[in-house]
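Entry for the shared binder. Reason: the reviewer on the internal report wants the predicted structure included alongside the sequence.
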Amino acid sequence: MPKKSTQTNNYETACFVQEAPVMSEIAVNGYTIKKSAEGLPYCEFESTLMTFNEYNRMRRRYDANNIDTVIASDERINDLLRRHQWRGEWNHPNPDIKGQQYSDIRMTIPEPIRTSHFITKPRLEGDRYRGHIITHPRTECGRAVASEIIDIGSIPCFSVRLLGNMIPNAPINQPNMRVSKVITFDMVDFPSHAGAQADITPAAYQEGAVIFLKELAKYCCEQDENMRVVCESFQFSTDEIMGIHNGNIVFQEADTNSRVHIPLKGDIRKEAMSIILG
C-alpha cells in the first residue's frame, strides 16, 4: 500500500468554482472600465445626449441642425474638445437654499470640482445627438457616478444646459426653441428627453456586490507569484480573467463558461482592495 504523501504545496490555494453558469454575474454591456494613473476606476461609454423630431417631457421641441451647428461653430466648445476638457456635472447646478440664485458665470461655466464626466466625439446621428462619455476618475461626483454604473448597474441619463429663445405659437410638430449657445450636457436622474440615456444594458447580478475591474485583476495576476503559478498550472489565460468579486480573482473558462473564484492574499490583496475602496 503506497504511503500517503505528506508533502505540502506552497502554492495550493482555496478557490470557488461555479460550473457553466447561465449568466455571468459580472457581465458588462456597453461600457468599458479603465484605471487612472492613481489606480482609480472610471467608465467610458457611448450615449444619446438629446433627441429631436419629438416634444420632450417639458413640451419643448428642438431643431437638430440648429443644435449641431451651434456646437460645431462654438469656439469655446471646440477648444475644450481639443483639450479633452468639455465637462459636465452630476445634476444641473441649483442653489441649496430657496431664494438664492447662482451667478451667470456659475450657470454657464461648469464647475471643475463638480465635474462628473467629460464629453468627447459629439455628433448628430439621425434624430439623436450623441457623444462618448468618460467619467472623472478623481472628483467625488465622478467616482460616485462610476460606482453607480459598476456596482449597481445604473444607466446614466443626460440633460442639455443651453441658452436660446422660445418660439411662441410655433406650428404643431415644429421646433419651438431656437438655441444660441449649448453649455454642456449634465448627468441627471430624470431627463427631459426620454431617450437621452447611455447605451448600457444593466448587468444581471447574483448575490454580493460586484466590482468589475478587469485591468486590476490582470495586474494582480502578473504581480503575485501565487496567482502566476495557479494560472500556469491550470492554464488560465488573461483573456479568461473577468474581474474581482469580493476579493477574489474571477476566471471564466472560454470553452465551458465555467467560473472559478481564486482569493487574493497578502500584500497584493491589500493593494487591490485599497484601490477598489479608494
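Summary line for the report: The mean pLDDT is 79.
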